[in-house]
């Protein structure tokens, strides 16, 4: 593998959330501009001193490892049903094929049959509280019974509450950047009874580097995120890459312990009318191993946790007030009128390989 030219890591600013939440007027103004500038260029930032707290993040990773260490026969008790209208539960490695901008049915089937296998397993959980109303779009969680995996159900409530709190604080910041008078405008699109926000718990399996280099397998294919905003927590293994703002080059996003990556997703790119970028990204060989001369090396396991923020299922995704002017970015083709639920269902349908008959 020697002789590979390494690209420079992505330049992603670190923004201190305390400057946004409790800083002086000038500190807040500066931090908001940094947030806006980063979202307009690369589409993501590292957020330090976030309200979720590093202790809770470390606890979440500990729960994630404990879950994925369970035997597959146990995890199968809460398997994802391979239904694009229901994406809760455990997904075995080799099941997903993330893809981008492919809508033709024949092309989707071809990618599912011939695309490289994603060597990761996933647990997806959503709102841990029972639906407060009769809503056909609400999806109940699939979580192992307390007698099999004690304590996890209670933890998901603490985790959900902390992520939602951070999410709403960030959405207020975005409204302020856009000069929307009602700072809760975006937050009011976040009724938990009417959206599909979710946590994705990811475990990337150990894999020979040659398997990645040959294209036989991948850790995570190139894609954009589907919703409004993503909070991404990663361990120190590395491998995340984001497309350069000029396009065509993928640059490593080096782990920064103690921070969370905040990333613009498809719906917010559309709502900002292209002002903010939903960046293509992928997970591959970590930056520091790409120049290795050891051809038989094995990548260690990698863990990440994503909190994917979705607006209400029936919300029509269209430019927000003040975003009438077309911006620079248009990562995907949008119909004139499409709801958040329709968009999410369409994107999820691309991701899962059909069950063998």
From TrEMBL:
Query: Domain Fe2OG dioxygenase spans what residues?
Result: 193-311
Q: Which domain of life is it from?
A: Eukaryota
- Segment forming the signal sequence: none
Question: What InterPro entries does its record include?
Answer: DIOX_N, IPNS-like_FE2OG_OXY, IPNS-like_sf, Iron_ascorbate_oxido_reductase, Oxoglu/Fe-dep_dioxygenase_dom
Q: Which GO terms describe its molecular function?
A: metal ion binding; oxidoreductase activity
**Any GO BP annotation:** small molecule biosynthetic process
> A Pfam family matched by this chain, by name?
2OG-FeII_Oxy
Entry keyword set: Iron, Metal-binding, Oxidoreductase
The answer, when asked if Iron is one of the entry's keywords, is yes
Membership in a protein family:
Belongs to the iron/ascorbate-dependent oxidoreductase family.
Query: What name goes with this protein?
Result: Fe2OG dioxygenase domain-containing protein
